[in-house]
Each structure stands twice: as structure tokens, then as C-alpha cells.
Specification:
12 helices; two-stranded antiparallel sheet; binds 2-phosphoglycolic acid; about 270 residues
């Protein structure tokens, strides 16, 4: 970064402006027909909020048709999972080569994948590296469960998840990833974390990235909060210095709610220092 020399004093570099990112994780909901009708309902409204990067993550079946529908908008597309091999005898799996034809993003390591499909931190790391190799931006989900939080293990656990997920990822790639902090106790429960608690963990994630790489990479990485985000609480999260957006489940399935989240996010842009 170029520094302007005014006399003997150096102007500090301006803070990196991270573009806010809202991703709608539809999970295993919506047939292709339903997906197209939901997109149709909210597409124009979402497209109007140009300062927010809005990513729709429908089920695999709907990716291609949704891609066609949003072609002329600012909306981006993401998948909810991916296998780390590019091709081969892996019945039922989807490869990064297939996804890169249709989407820009892929959610990796969601707690539901970890819980129901036994994905480990090491699996997540393999997937993160495969995604980056294929020009897909991973949205890496991390989070603690209630027992772990109550045992005071949150910071250590999240740092460990982030560290393993980013193993062997170079600093150039690391700066491009999105990390989603999703406390498991807040997912689908209607009990979102407070802005302050969420920011504490997101700040810890940024510090972990700084420790693994450097301050510059840490200041570029975008960190989302996820877990019962709504149009009514998004402003609280977006007002936090280390929260750059949200990974939204339930509320992304209702056009009015999702549009409100994106609208509130755009409103929060510029209010941050
Ligand atoms: P929720 O889900 O918004 O319904 O809590 C978030 C997620 O699982 O990504």
C-alpha cells in the first residue's frame, strides 16, 4: 500500500473495506420449480442492493436452472457442499469441476454436514483446497455446540477448526475465503447469539488468521455470523466491527425476509468505521 508522506509523519493506511456478503443457505428445501418461483419473487428486489454481495445456495438440482434465471443480475450462486476429488468412482458425489461451471461459492463444513455426515476438520480442509484450486470461493462454516460453549471451550475450538480448514492454503488464497461463524446452538433455534458474543468469536477468527498468515490477510478475510439471523436482528450483527455479513438459513426461504436482511445490510454499509 502506498503511504503518503506529509512532512515527517506517515498517514496510516485506510482500513480495508470488506464488501458485505449475505448468503442464503436453503439446505434441503425447494424443488426446482419452487426454487425458480422463489428466485423470481425476490430477484429484482435483491438485485437493487448493489453494495451487498448476495449469494443464493439452493440444492444441487436447482443450481443450473437458477443460474440461468439470475444471469443478468448481481446475484451470485453457491453450492452447499462438494466432494474434494475432481472425478472418479465416488457414487453420489459432486465435484468442484462440476460446480465451477455453475457457481462461484461453496459452503463447506456446515455443522449439519459435520453432525449427520460425519465430516471432519480434515475433510473440510481437503474440500477447501479443492474449491480454491477450482476457483470456487469456500464459505467455511465453524461453530461450537452448547456444551462446548458452557465448558468455556469456544475460542480454542473455533481457532482449531479455522487452523485445520486453512492448512496448506497459501496467503493469497486465504485472503479470499469467507468464514462463517455459526454457533450450533443458534442454528434454526430462533435463539441468535448477541451481536457482542458473535463479534467476540469473529474477532478471534480474524486473530487466528493473522497468526496463521499476517495482518493484511486477516483484514481481508470476510467473516459471517450465522444462526437464526432475521431481518430484525441483522442490523445488530452488521454494526459489529468484525462481522461482514451473514449465512442465513430459515429466513432465506422467505422472499420478504431475505430481501429485508439484504436491505438492512446495505443500510449498515457506510455506518461502519
Ligand atoms: P438458520 O440457519 O438461519 O435457520 O438458523 C443458519 C445455517 O444453518 O446456515
Amino acid at each position: 500500500m502506498v503511504q503518503i508522506n506529509r512532512g515527517n509523519s506517515f498517514e496510516p493506511p485506510p482500513p480495508v473495506r470488506r464488501i458485505p456478503i449475505i448468503a442464503g443457505n436453503w439446505k434441503m428445501n425447494k424443488t426446482v420449480e419452487e426454487a425458480l418461483s422463489l428466485i423470481d419473487e425476490m430477484m429484482d428486489d435483491l438485485d437493487a442492493y448493489e453494495e451487498v454481495e448476495t449469494v443464493i445456495c439452493p440444492p444441487f438440482m436447482a443450481l443450473s436452472p437458477v443460474m440461468d434465471l439470475i444471469e443478468d443480475t448481481n446475484l451470485k450462486l453457491g453450492a452447499q457442499n462438494m466432494f474434494y476429488k475432481e472425478s472418479g468412482a465416488y457414487t453420489g458425489e459432486i465435484s468442484p469441476l462440476m460446480l465451477r461451471e455453475v457457481c462461484d461459492y461453496v459452503i463447506l463444513g456446515h455443522s449439519e454436514r459435520r453432525q449427520y455426515f460425519h465430516e471432519t476438520d480434515e475433510d473440510v480442509n481437503l474440500k477447501v483446497r479443492a474449491a480454491l484450486k477450482n476457483d470456487l470461493v469456500p464459505i467455511i462454516a465453524v461453530g461450537e455446540n452448547l456444551e462446548q460453549r458452557e465448558a468455556g471451550r469456544t475460542a480454542e475450538l473455533i481457532a482449531n477448526q479455522v487452523e485445520i480448514a486453512l492448512r496448506e492454503v497459501n496467503s493469497f488464497d486465504a485472503a479470499t475465503v469467507v468464514i462463517a461463524y455459526e454457533p450450533i446452538w443458534a442454528i434454526g433455534t430462533g435463539k441468535a447469539a448477541s451481536g457482542q458474543i458473535a463479534n467476540e468469536v469473529c474477532q478471534g477468527i480474524r486473530q487466528t488468521v493473522a497468526r496463521l498468515y499476517n495482518q493484511e490477510v486477516a483484514s481481508q478475510v470476510r467473516i459471517q455470523y450465522g444462526g437464526s439471523v432475521t431481518g430484525d436482528n441483522i442490523a445488530e450483527f452488521m454494526s459489529q466491527p468484525d462481522i461482514d455479513g451473514a449465512l442465513v438459513g430459515g429466513a432465506s426461504l422467505k422472499a420478504a425476509d431475505f430481501v429485508k436482511i439484504v436491505a438492512q445490510t446495505q443500510e449498515a454499509v457506510g455506518k461502519k468505521g
